[in-house]
Amino acid sequence: MRIVLVGPPGAGKGTQAAYLARNLEIPHISTGDLFRANISQGTPLGVEAKSYMDAGNLVPDSVTIRMAEDRMEQADAAGGFLLDGFPRNLGQAEALDTYLKGKGISLDAVLDLEVPEDEVVKRIAGRRICRKNSAHVFHAEYSKPKTEGVCDVCGGELYQRDDDHEDTVRKRLEVYHSETEPIIDYYKAQELVVTIPALGKVEEVTQRAMSALGRGE
Ligand code: AP5
Ligand code: ZN
Hints:
By secondary structure, the chain is an alpha/beta fold. The chain has nine helices and eight strands.
Protein backbone atom coordinates (compact mmCIF):
# COMPACT_ATOMS: atom_id res chain seq x y z
CA MET A 1 0.00 0.00 0.00
CA ARG A 2 1.09 3.56 -0.68
CA ILE A 3 -0.22 5.96 1.91
CA VAL A 4 0.25 9.63 2.80
CA LEU A 5 -0.37 10.88 6.36
CA VAL A 6 -1.28 14.54 6.80
CA GLY A 7 -2.25 16.59 9.82
CA PRO A 8 -1.06 19.58 11.82
CA PRO A 9 2.18 19.52 13.81
CA GLY A 10 1.66 17.35 16.87
CA ALA A 11 -1.38 15.53 15.42
CA GLY A 12 0.34 12.20 16.03
CA LYS A 13 1.57 11.46 12.49
CA GLY A 14 4.91 10.04 13.64
CA THR A 15 3.27 8.04 16.42
CA GLN A 16 0.63 6.53 14.12
CA ALA A 17 3.10 6.00 11.28
CA ALA A 18 5.24 3.76 13.46
CA TYR A 19 2.28 1.43 14.23
CA LEU A 20 0.72 1.55 10.77
CA ALA A 21 4.00 0.86 8.99
CA ARG A 22 4.62 -2.13 11.26
CA ASN A 23 1.06 -3.50 10.83
CA LEU A 24 1.10 -3.02 7.07
CA GLU A 25 4.75 -4.10 6.68
CA ILE A 26 5.74 -1.05 4.66
CA PRO A 27 8.56 1.43 5.26
CA HIS A 28 7.83 4.60 7.24
CA ILE A 29 9.30 7.59 5.44
CA SER A 30 9.35 10.80 7.48
CA THR A 31 10.97 13.87 5.93
CA GLY A 32 11.19 15.47 9.40
CA ASP A 33 13.12 12.42 10.70
CA LEU A 34 15.38 12.44 7.62
CA PHE A 35 16.18 16.12 8.22
CA ARG A 36 16.84 15.49 11.93
CA ALA A 37 19.16 12.56 11.10
CA ASN A 38 21.09 14.87 8.73
CA ILE A 39 21.27 17.55 11.42
CA SER A 40 22.65 15.15 14.01
CA GLN A 41 25.23 13.86 11.50
CA GLY A 42 26.20 17.44 10.60
CA THR A 43 25.72 16.95 6.83
CA PRO A 44 25.47 20.02 4.50
CA LEU A 45 21.79 19.12 3.95
CA GLY A 46 21.27 19.10 7.73
CA VAL A 47 22.99 22.48 8.14
CA GLU A 48 20.75 23.98 5.44
CA ALA A 49 17.55 22.41 6.79
CA LYS A 50 18.15 23.43 10.42
CA SER A 51 17.78 27.17 9.85
CA TYR A 52 14.37 26.68 8.23
CA MET A 53 13.17 24.15 10.79
CA ASP A 54 14.20 26.25 13.80
CA ALA A 55 12.20 29.15 12.36
CA GLY A 56 9.15 26.91 11.81
CA ASN A 57 9.31 27.31 8.02
CA LEU A 58 9.32 24.67 5.32
CA VAL A 59 12.67 23.55 3.95
CA PRO A 60 12.81 24.56 0.24
CA ASP A 61 11.22 22.14 -2.24
CA SER A 62 14.45 21.78 -4.24
CA VAL A 63 16.10 20.08 -1.26
CA THR A 64 13.06 18.27 0.13
CA ILE A 65 11.72 16.67 -3.05
CA ARG A 66 15.08 15.18 -4.02
CA MET A 67 15.61 13.81 -0.51
CA ALA A 68 12.11 12.25 -0.41
CA GLU A 69 12.51 10.70 -3.87
CA ASP A 70 15.94 9.26 -2.99
CA ARG A 71 14.41 7.67 0.09
CA MET A 72 11.46 6.23 -1.90
CA GLU A 73 13.92 4.79 -4.45
CA GLN A 74 15.84 3.17 -1.64
CA ALA A 75 12.61 1.73 -0.23
CA ASP A 76 11.49 0.48 -3.66
CA ALA A 77 8.37 2.64 -4.01
CA ALA A 78 6.47 -0.04 -5.93
CA GLY A 79 6.51 -2.26 -2.81
CA GLY A 80 4.62 0.35 -0.78
CA PHE A 81 5.41 3.11 1.73
CA LEU A 82 3.90 5.35 4.34
CA LEU A 83 4.81 9.00 3.85
CA ASP A 84 4.77 11.12 7.03
CA GLY A 85 5.26 14.88 6.58
CA PHE A 86 5.61 14.74 2.80
CA PRO A 87 4.11 16.19 0.66
CA ARG A 88 3.58 19.41 2.57
CA ASN A 89 2.60 21.90 -0.13
CA LEU A 90 1.08 21.79 -3.61
CA GLY A 91 4.46 21.80 -5.38
CA GLN A 92 5.52 18.70 -3.45
CA ALA A 93 2.17 16.97 -4.08
CA GLU A 94 2.53 17.57 -7.82
CA ALA A 95 6.14 16.37 -7.78
CA LEU A 96 5.05 13.20 -5.98
CA ASP A 97 2.32 12.55 -8.56
CA THR A 98 4.85 12.98 -11.39
CA TYR A 99 7.30 10.63 -9.65
CA LEU A 100 4.66 7.93 -9.08
CA LYS A 101 3.25 8.28 -12.59
CA GLY A 102 6.76 7.77 -13.96
CA LYS A 103 6.79 4.42 -12.19
CA GLY A 104 3.25 3.50 -13.27
CA ILE A 105 1.99 3.48 -9.68
CA SER A 106 -0.32 5.66 -7.58
CA LEU A 107 -1.38 6.41 -4.00
CA ASP A 108 -3.99 4.24 -2.27
CA ALA A 109 -5.07 6.71 0.42
CA VAL A 110 -4.36 10.00 2.15
CA LEU A 111 -5.16 9.83 5.86
CA ASP A 112 -5.94 13.24 7.34
CA LEU A 113 -5.48 13.21 11.13
CA GLU A 114 -7.93 15.67 12.65
CA VAL A 115 -7.12 17.15 16.07
CA PRO A 116 -8.28 20.42 17.70
CA GLU A 117 -5.58 23.06 17.97
CA ASP A 118 -5.52 23.23 21.79
CA GLU A 119 -4.83 19.48 21.95
CA VAL A 120 -2.02 19.80 19.39
CA VAL A 121 -0.35 22.46 21.54
CA LYS A 122 -0.54 20.16 24.62
CA ARG A 123 0.85 17.23 22.67
CA ILE A 124 3.80 19.22 21.39
CA ALA A 125 4.57 20.84 24.76
CA GLY A 126 4.96 17.39 26.40
CA ARG A 127 6.69 15.61 23.54
CA ARG A 128 10.07 14.00 24.24
CA ILE A 129 12.02 12.22 21.54
CA CYS A 130 14.97 9.86 21.56
CA ARG A 131 18.39 11.20 20.64
CA LYS A 132 19.39 7.89 19.04
CA ASN A 133 16.23 7.46 16.94
CA SER A 134 13.69 10.26 16.45
CA ALA A 135 11.00 7.72 15.56
CA HIS A 136 10.96 6.80 19.29
CA VAL A 137 8.42 9.35 20.54
CA PHE A 138 7.11 9.82 24.11
CA HIS A 139 5.00 12.33 26.00
CA ALA A 140 5.65 13.63 29.51
CA GLU A 141 2.01 12.94 30.49
CA TYR A 142 0.26 10.85 27.84
CA SER A 143 2.95 8.36 26.94
CA LYS A 144 5.48 8.30 29.75
CA PRO A 145 8.69 6.31 29.40
CA LYS A 146 9.28 3.75 32.19
CA THR A 147 12.29 5.75 33.39
CA GLU A 148 12.12 9.53 33.11
CA GLY A 149 14.37 10.87 30.36
CA VAL A 150 15.28 7.42 28.97
CA CYS A 151 13.94 5.78 25.79
CA ASP A 152 12.07 2.50 26.50
CA VAL A 153 13.04 1.11 23.10
CA CYS A 154 16.80 1.67 22.93
CA GLY A 155 17.94 3.37 26.16
CA GLY A 156 18.75 6.65 24.33
CA GLU A 157 18.42 10.01 26.05
CA LEU A 158 15.06 11.77 25.62
CA TYR A 159 15.04 15.46 24.73
CA GLN A 160 12.72 18.25 23.58
CA ARG A 161 13.00 19.23 19.90
CA ASP A 162 14.48 22.67 19.12
CA ASP A 163 11.36 23.53 17.10
CA ASP A 164 8.94 22.57 19.89
CA HIS A 165 9.11 25.93 21.68
CA GLU A 166 5.97 28.06 21.79
CA ASP A 167 6.85 30.71 19.16
CA THR A 168 8.04 28.15 16.65
CA VAL A 169 4.99 25.97 17.20
CA ARG A 170 2.72 28.94 16.48
CA LYS A 171 4.64 29.59 13.25
CA ARG A 172 4.47 25.88 12.26
CA LEU A 173 0.69 25.91 12.73
CA GLU A 174 0.41 29.02 10.54
CA VAL A 175 2.52 27.38 7.83
CA TYR A 176 0.35 24.25 8.10
CA HIS A 177 -2.84 26.25 7.45
CA SER A 178 -1.43 28.30 4.59
CA GLU A 179 0.78 25.79 2.77
CA THR A 180 -0.16 22.25 3.76
CA GLU A 181 -3.96 22.34 4.14
CA PRO A 182 -4.45 23.08 0.41
CA ILE A 183 -3.09 19.61 -0.41
CA ILE A 184 -6.14 18.10 1.30
CA ASP A 185 -8.40 19.61 -1.36
CA TYR A 186 -5.92 18.56 -4.04
CA TYR A 187 -6.21 14.94 -2.86
CA LYS A 188 -9.99 15.22 -2.28
CA ALA A 189 -10.28 15.93 -6.00
CA GLN A 190 -8.55 12.55 -6.51
CA GLU A 191 -10.96 10.92 -3.99
CA LEU A 192 -8.07 9.74 -1.82
CA VAL A 193 -8.78 11.52 1.47
CA VAL A 194 -10.08 9.75 4.58
CA THR A 195 -10.47 11.92 7.67
CA ILE A 196 -9.41 10.15 10.87
CA PRO A 197 -10.54 11.70 14.16
CA ALA A 198 -7.25 11.60 16.08
CA LEU A 199 -8.40 12.34 19.65
CA GLY A 200 -8.39 9.42 22.06
CA LYS A 201 -5.86 6.74 22.87
CA VAL A 202 -3.04 6.02 20.43
CA GLU A 203 -4.35 2.45 19.86
CA GLU A 204 -7.88 3.73 19.16
CA VAL A 205 -6.58 6.09 16.50
CA THR A 206 -4.51 3.28 14.95
CA GLN A 207 -7.64 1.10 14.81
CA ARG A 208 -9.63 3.85 13.10
CA ALA A 209 -6.87 4.26 10.53
CA MET A 210 -6.60 0.50 9.92
CA SER A 211 -10.40 0.26 9.46
CA ALA A 212 -10.31 3.17 7.03
CA LEU A 213 -7.74 1.22 5.02
CA GLY A 214 -10.00 -1.84 5.01
CA ARG A 215 -7.65 -3.66 7.42
CA GLY A 216 -9.71 -3.38 10.59
CA GLU A 217 -10.52 -6.35 12.84
P1 AP5 B 1 8.04 17.13 11.17
O1 AP5 B 1 9.03 16.40 11.95
O2 AP5 B 1 7.30 16.43 10.09
O3 AP5 B 1 7.03 17.81 12.18
P2 AP5 B 1 5.47 18.16 12.13
O4 AP5 B 1 4.74 17.90 10.87
O5 AP5 B 1 5.42 19.53 12.66
O6 AP5 B 1 4.87 17.09 12.99
P3 AP5 B 1 5.37 16.69 14.37
O7 AP5 B 1 6.55 15.78 14.26
O8 AP5 B 1 5.53 17.93 15.23
O9 AP5 B 1 4.13 15.95 14.96
P4 AP5 B 1 3.46 14.55 14.66
O10 AP5 B 1 2.17 14.78 13.97
O11 AP5 B 1 4.43 13.58 14.03
O12 AP5 B 1 3.14 14.11 16.14
P5 AP5 B 1 3.81 13.02 17.11
O13 AP5 B 1 3.46 11.64 16.66
O14 AP5 B 1 5.25 13.33 17.34
O15 AP5 B 1 8.69 18.43 10.51
C1 AP5 B 1 9.52 19.28 11.25
C2 AP5 B 1 10.06 20.38 10.34
O16 AP5 B 1 10.85 19.79 9.28
C3 AP5 B 1 9.02 21.23 9.61
O17 AP5 B 1 8.57 22.31 10.41
C4 AP5 B 1 9.82 21.69 8.38
O18 AP5 B 1 10.70 22.75 8.71
C5 AP5 B 1 10.68 20.48 8.06
N1 AP5 B 1 10.02 19.58 7.10
C6 AP5 B 1 9.60 18.29 7.31
N2 AP5 B 1 9.04 17.77 6.19
C7 AP5 B 1 9.09 18.78 5.26
C8 AP5 B 1 8.62 18.88 3.91
N3 AP5 B 1 7.99 17.87 3.32
N4 AP5 B 1 8.84 20.05 3.26
C9 AP5 B 1 9.48 21.09 3.83
N5 AP5 B 1 9.92 21.05 5.12
C10 AP5 B 1 9.72 19.92 5.82
O19 AP5 B 1 2.96 13.30 18.44
C11 AP5 B 1 3.11 14.50 19.17
C12 AP5 B 1 3.09 14.20 20.69
O20 AP5 B 1 1.78 13.75 21.03
C13 AP5 B 1 4.04 13.07 21.13
O21 AP5 B 1 4.60 13.41 22.36
C14 AP5 B 1 3.14 11.84 21.25
O22 AP5 B 1 3.62 10.93 22.25
C15 AP5 B 1 1.81 12.47 21.64
N6 AP5 B 1 0.65 11.72 21.10
C16 AP5 B 1 0.53 11.16 19.87
N7 AP5 B 1 -0.68 10.59 19.72
C17 AP5 B 1 -1.34 10.80 20.89
C18 AP5 B 1 -2.65 10.45 21.38
N8 AP5 B 1 -3.53 9.78 20.61
N9 AP5 B 1 -2.99 10.84 22.62
C19 AP5 B 1 -2.12 11.53 23.40
N10 AP5 B 1 -0.86 11.87 23.01
C20 AP5 B 1 -0.49 11.53 21.76
ZN1 ZN C 1 15.22 5.24 21.30
